[in-house]
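Researcher: Next entry in the queue.
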Amino acid sequence: MNKELIIQSSDAGIEIAMLEDKRLVELHFDNSGGQFNVGDLYLGKIKKIMPGLNAAFVDIGHDKDAFLHYTDLSPYFRSLVKFTESCITDTSAGTFDFTKFQLEPEIHKAGKAMDVMQGKPRVLVQILKEPISAKGPRVSCEISLPGRFIVVTPFNNFVNISKKIHSVDERKRLQRIIESIKPNNFGVIVRTAAEGQSSAELHKDLVQVVDSWKAIQYNLKNAKPPMKILSEQNKTTSLLRDLLNDDFYRIVANDSSIVKDAKEYIHSIAPGKESIVTQNASGENLFEYLGIAKQVKQSFGKTVMMNSGGYLVIEHTEAMHVIDVNSGHKFSNEGQETTALRTNLEAAREVARQLRLRDIGGIIIVDFIDMKDSENKKKISEAMEDFMASDRAKHTVLPLSRFGLMQITRQRLRPEIKISTGETCPSCNGSGKIRSSQLLLDDIEKHIKYLKTNLNINLELHVHPIVRSHLTKGLLWNSIYAKWKKAYGNFFIKEDNGYEFLQYKFYDGNTGEEIKF
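Model: Structure for this entry, 517 residues:
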């Protein structure tokens, strides 16, 4: 699979598109100076403890206080509070040796927030979920600092190996290397990307992450909540950190500073691969030039077409997303069961792409085309698992139910990406219905009667061309216009192509001023 990263910089921010075999699979927006991004660390102050929720609200500077549940406190919550206060009050020139930091006893897994948050202490928290809708951020006290090959969790001493590394010998090798180089008071999770890496590369990655922890210690000195302590890497470098592998063959950007930063970062994590980064200095919009904008228009919206002629209908409700699979109107010589299987397999692939592309989270229900063969149903479930294997968000896929429905849950970290591919009709405001033409004529007639009775002016009625045609159709003495003139006095009708269908206005023909009601 060939992967590309296309980076378009503009005054509004940075747009990043990830392509797999030329198909758009992820879309990211990186706004300069963005706040409260996943992974950011903040010094917060506990404002309110909610015993009923077993949680607390923490002031980190957002309009809405961040939500901190007891299960996100970390077993070493007391150690974290002690560490935070030690850093804030530290008057030394440098930072104290964290490997000699004395850890406090763990808190009970089934404890209560009231018991461990007494005094509402200042606390270091990390953003788990960005603010969504009317909700503030969700935060955690289980600090994790990601590197390319490892994730470091302070206040721990364990070593865990990614379950996606299946080789027993490789797991033992990585366990042995990490245990020999890991500093005290740091837990380490070995990522899948570490498979086959040398001890020197792993040590280099570990040192860089530990340096980040030292920067946190330094930034906490004399800090007052609410305050950002450390930002997650910008979207470009964080994507490279998490995704860069041999499948990446091209990174294109239109900004020289982004190209420079990307090359420097790639040189630091994968020397020799800097050549995959290139700059397009033509001045053209990269998304238009490379056909990404077209894919965006085709991929967003209520209906998503598939190559076979089938299509998906994606609906969002308050509780869940619902995706309906339709075969379309193309006919096939294959049997009904075979056609349904082929369409469902294509739909499964597209559903997996749509979930990543739109960053849809929560509960998703997919209504596949009905199939009778249980083996075919099993194929769809297995295919969906395979297609979602590359999705970095935590997810669960359940087998097809008796009714042909598949339930999927997907981790929601950020607001869903919504790109409008249509416009609201100015006449019906998206309802699909407009006022009765008879009611429109009644309103116009009522206003003409009032104006001709009470004002002595040269009255002009401005309407849409179709409405004018309707008012003047028929014989000179038999049209609606003729009847109104006979009943209320002379006035003129003028058409305006810029008017909405049901829009009308009255003007004083002598002064040109609009008559408002």
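Model: Residues 41-230 form one domain.
Researcher: Noted, moving on.
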